[in-house]
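Intended use. Records like the one below are meant for learning the mapping from a protein sequence to its folded structure. Do not use them to infer anything beyond what is encoded.
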Amino acid sequence: MSSIIGVDTGGTFTDVVVLQDDGTTVSAKAATTGDDLEVGILAAITEAGRKLALGADELLGQTEIFRLSGTTVTNVVLTGQGVATGLLTTVGFEDTLHIGRGKSAWAGGTEEEVRRAYRRLKPAPLVPKPLVRGIAERVDSTGSVVVPLSHEQLAGAADELVDAGAKSLAVCFVWSVRNSGHELEARDIIAKRHPDVSVHLSHAVAPSAGEYERFTTTVVDALAGPVMDRLLRRLRTTLGDHGFDGELLVAQADGGAAYAEETRPVSTLQSGPAAGVIASRNEGRSIGKQNVVTADVGGTSFDVAVVADGEWLYSREPTVGKLSLSLPMIEVESVGAGGGSIAWVDELDVLHVGPHSAGANPGPVCYGLGGTEPTVTDAALVLGYLNPEYFLGGRVELAASAAEEAVTKLGEPLGLTATETAAGIFAIANAHMAGLITRRVVSRGYDPRDFVVFAYGGAGGMHGAFYAAETDIPEVVIPALAGTFSALGVTTAPLLHTARRHDFAPIPMDADRFVENFRELQGEVVAMLERDGVPEKDRTLVYALDMRYGVQVHTVRLVISPETCFAADFETIREEFDATYEKLYGKGSGYGDAGRFATAFIVEGYGRLAIPSRAPSTGEAKDPSPAFAETRDLFFDGSFVKGSIYRYGALRAGNEIPGPAVIEAPETTIVVPPDRLAWVDPYLNVRIGTAAAADREG
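Structure written out for the chain above:
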């Protein structure tokens, strides 16, 4: 037996999915263990092994591929706790990070924050001025060398920065995306003088125009590089000590995975949420759903993305922690509305939920680990949705009385009972979720009624039916592995290599130059896939252009067919760009009179790995009584009602469960409101909708 293991280390829990070559799939959770992530990872693997009647060493010994995603680099960005980093840049551009963009104060903010941008500050520069040095060199926008690189000045500046404590250096020269020679020379000089210092080159990290975004992306890579290297070394050592000698891959924010040795730290930003989108797209296709809203309710945040016509959407201007970046990233937007989000009352006696979270330690009050502030999880326990004796399949007993006491205390200044306060907390959290879903779907020009929601994460099934009803989405799918769904996405993500070239030119342009750009990029990607041993039948190449209208500065990604690409079919490109632009921004929004311009050429190479598939079940029994466990008081529409409680593990394909009900699984809880029907599909997903929706699904 051989296995593939996928791990997603979230802010609260570390999730594991194991796929065995006979199609057997198991999942497990363990608490995330802060700076010692490998401890929590091993604990989750041990639990997964227990379900397979294997020890951790035996399971890891049969594992051929181990895949990882997590929040390590995101935490560096949000907290600024990377290694000391120096910046070497073209003289005259030393203040690029400090100046930022005009939008820097509100980048990544909510609509309310954008309206009140005067109250917000630009993000703190990632590199303090004492660790920035300007170097005499200059390349122009055509790639011509205007001022040769001063080797002597660069060597002296590198020495100064290292002496000042820099452990990592970002080299960001102007127009290096057109001519990378000076950055490569700088790397060689630094390597000879300071071989232990990590060096990050902007043309390699972010090969696109726009010096602020390119500089920021490169500096993030430099800040997180040694941190990521240390994590991967410790993880490989820990896994090796327990029998693992296979391939270690790391999930990327663009929907793929890369070997650990080739991973750029910045490319792992938001890789956990991106993995959930990968799994949603794949599972959606298996049940015939091409339009999917992905909704991940974790312990800390609520992450939403859109899959339209079977493909996820890429972020046009990714922003993380108010920092505008330049890298391909699946478009995922988040709000602080997770199971661990803290409820609080402001000075005007208004109840709020989030964005602050109790995290994994101390966690919600009901965890009994020292938490004192009530959370969404505590509210769900008061409302009867959670079973205090069956949390994580009974491995953890929740302190129901402590949760009720904390919720009661919060509601006292408002004159509310514990139940009323808990209901308010739960409703506010659902409203935050519904608002984000509506904004994501409608802003992209889609009708929510044409989508289904994939509700996953540890608390996804508890909230899904509520926020779907608020957004007019007709059906909710709670995947079979909902509690560890992002880890499933990590497990099944394809190898992905991307080659990108900045070449600003009007469309139409010289046909030979156009085709040559794509041929050279294609050659780079194919060479990388061949090196990884991916056979031609398992390769998929995607060709794309970044394009914009002549008077604009923001670009739109346009995927084109190989036939259009190598025929240099500019008429088709023009038509498809105009159509894509209007789909994004509205009919009549294009401005063809200003001309159309390509700013970058892109080729992506996907390598499909052999992933064991799950065969659908064939059962058709509607009666779920073998899974019935008990009745319990559940709170709906202002009062408690008797609801039926079922155990997910005993459900079979075809089972139907009318609300009010709760379905309990070891890693998630699914709430079925009184006016909804849940049914189990052949892939053992639980789907919630009206009775009419269930009839349509057959």
